[in-house]
Amino acid sequence: MTQHSSAPATGTAPAVRTDASGAPAGWWRDAVIYQVYPRSFADGNGDGMGDLAGVRARLPYLADLGVDAVWLSPFYASPQADAGYDVADYRAIDPMFGDLHDADALIRDAHELGLRIIVDLVPNHSSDQHEWFQRALREGPGSPLRDRYHFRPGRGPKGEEPPNDWESIFGGPAWTRTENPDGTPGEWYLHLFAPEQPDFNWENEAVRDEFRSVLRFWLDMGVDGFRIDVAHGLVKAAGLPDMGRAGQLKLLGNQVLPFFDQDGVHEIYRSWRRILDEYPGERIGVAEAWTPSPERTALYLRADELHQAFNFHYLNTAWNAEALREVIDQSLDSMRPVGAPTTWVLSNHDVVRHRTRLGGGLARARAASLLMLALPGSAYVYQGEELGLPEVADLPDEVRQDPSFFKDNGQDGLRDGCRVPIPWTRAGSSHGFGSGGSWLPQPGQWAELSVEEQTGDPTSTLELYRSALAVRREHPALGAGESVQWLEDFPAGVLAFRRRAADGSGRDLICTANTTDRPVELSAAPGRALLASGEYEGGAIPADTTVWWEV
Ligand code: GLC
Tens digit of pLDDT for each residue in 522-537? Predict the structure, then answer.
């Protein structure tokens, strides 16, 4: 079997890193991080909406699943115009999710179970109900508080045109006109997302100070890191220049824009890194950064900036061996110079669930998951993907809550279909999500996809994830790493690579993913089959199936 390495092998096992206390360091380099969407994970008080008590009660499930850390989407005080990504108070829990005691108890319980907690930080914009924005509105033009956001007079003779031509990611102009305290039409303010999400002005020192303080507040609460929402958006080009064209959504993630991926953001993350490093135990920052290329994403991960960034280039890749190989190489190559771990993600609360998106049903989703978990670096699992949940495509319009209509960035339409509360039990109100129904209706199929139904069934997706995470934890060839060795001697459409055991034991692992829709016969088994995403019992690898082999 000929082999091609995507990078020169170093020949030596990486040294075990240790922190000041001598404990192994770099937990985040190979962590599997599970995303909890608090509204839809578990409802502790029976009001139909998930909450922190619900999450806390289900932590043993997550520990048992075998993940290393839990990232919670926002649970802060919020009018919920964008499901909590519109924060009114960064230091308070929304009553619908609980209170600070619940957060404290959740963090403590998680730590006792060996799980780390990552919270979502939303620094690009606040809610329009945030005290600063409300005061800025009340005090009118000229108030120094207006400088904490982007207020501008309109264009046109009566100021009736927006100050520039920027478009909101959720559609329409990125500007909304205010009313002066005396009721006359006033200045406009910038919101790259919904009108209820005014953008902060990061040139203002009070904004910078406030977020450093918010970081410390949650670090003092004991969190292990932050997922930084719209990390690429904080700094806007000086003078807020026109884009000069419409259809700006098409450019997102393809080029540097006057409102996205400006170089000035990096200084902010350098100052945050200094704060993270003041705390023991390796607290991390994870960038949600939509940039034009993996190379530009890597800039957020220089040694004195953040630790990880989501790999949206991988998420946006079709189920195709060549395309996957290319994005995997490109991802690994671009992270290597900055020494950051590559991350892998297939689903989150903003995109169509990968079971549906990849177009091949459950078999393909399982194959994609097993492939992802074999890649070097850290992986993200979105709640419910371990159950093989599909996108709920037929939600009635009247129950939908998502303000967005992302259409051109891989997000096709409204995002509620991946946010339906997950099923825990076959029967019962909302399949065990809670005792009081669920805020989005669950499809009938949820019974057979429930945790209860799948637990203990070796053919279930849940048990596949449990096994994969257990093998990944134990196996010296899985987890952190900087490269894969591509294996060329496989039939077309089979992605095959080898990972070297990091401990010198020689227990290498080969991963083969048959991305085709036909069974593929191998000339010889590449090793002992450890785990397969489909029914592999020797002979041909079934269509849409990934197999892990120990060599
Ligand atoms: C991020 C979040 C998304 C939210 C947006 C605005 O992309 O993941 O859910 O709508 O930021 O905060």
Answer: 989 999 999 999 999 8
User: Residue with the nearest Cα to atom 6 of ligand 1?
Assistant: 85
**Structural domain tally of the chain?**
2
The alpha carbon of 223 and the centre of ligand 1 are apart by a number of angstroms equal to 21
The rounded mean pLDDT for the chain is: 93
Examine the pLDDT at 250 and tell me if it is beyond 90.
no
DSSP-assigned letters across all residues of 212-277: HHHHHHHHHHT--EEEETTTT-S---TT-----SS-GGGGTTTS-BTTBS-TTHHHHHHHHHHHHH
Whether the per-residue pLDDT at 14 is higher than 80: the answer is: no
Say whether both 157 and 109 belong to one domain.
no
Catalytic residues: 229, 278
> Is residue 114 domain-shared with residue 137, that is, in the same domain?
no
What does the pLDDT average to over 92-114? 98
Q: Which atom of ligand 1 is nearest to the CA of 194?
A: 6
User: Could you tell me if residue 535 is inside a domain?
Assistant: no
Identify whether residues 359 and 446 lie together within a single domain: yes
CATH number at residue 142: 3.90.400.10
DSSP track, 98-117: --HHHHHHHHHHHHHTT-EE
- Give the Å distance between the CA of 85 and the centre of ligand 1: 6
413 confidence band (pLDDT: 50, 70, 90) = low
| pLDDT tops 60 at residue 71 | yes
Closest CA to 404 of 86, 41, 121, 178: 86
- Contacts of residue 243, Cβ cutoff 8 Å, sequence gap at least 6: 164, 165, 166, 167, 257, 258
Same domain for 234 and 93? yes
Nearest CA to ligand 1 atom 4: 85
Residue 17 has pLDDT above 90, yes or no: no
First to last CA, the chain: 13
Please report whether residue 488 resides in a domain: no
Q: Which residues constitute the domain of residue 464?
A: 27-125+205-238+247-472
d(CA 509, CA 512): 10
Which of 417, 448, 472 is the endpoint of a domain?
Answer: 472
| Residues in contact with ligand 1 (CB, 6 Å cut-off) | 82, 85, 122, 193, 229-230, 288, 349-350
Which pLDDT band holds residue 412 (cuts at 50, 70, 90)?
Answer: very low
pLDDT at position 183 is 94
In DSSP terms, 345 is beta-bridged to 380
| Residue nearest ligand 1's atom 9 by CA | 350
Q: Which of 472, 491, 516 is the last residue of a domain?
A: 472
Each residue's pLDDT tens digit, 18-61: 545 544 579 999 999 999 999 999 999 999 999 999 999 999 99
Atom of ligand 1 lying closest to residue 170 CA: 10
Distance 543 CA to ligand 1 centre (A): 35
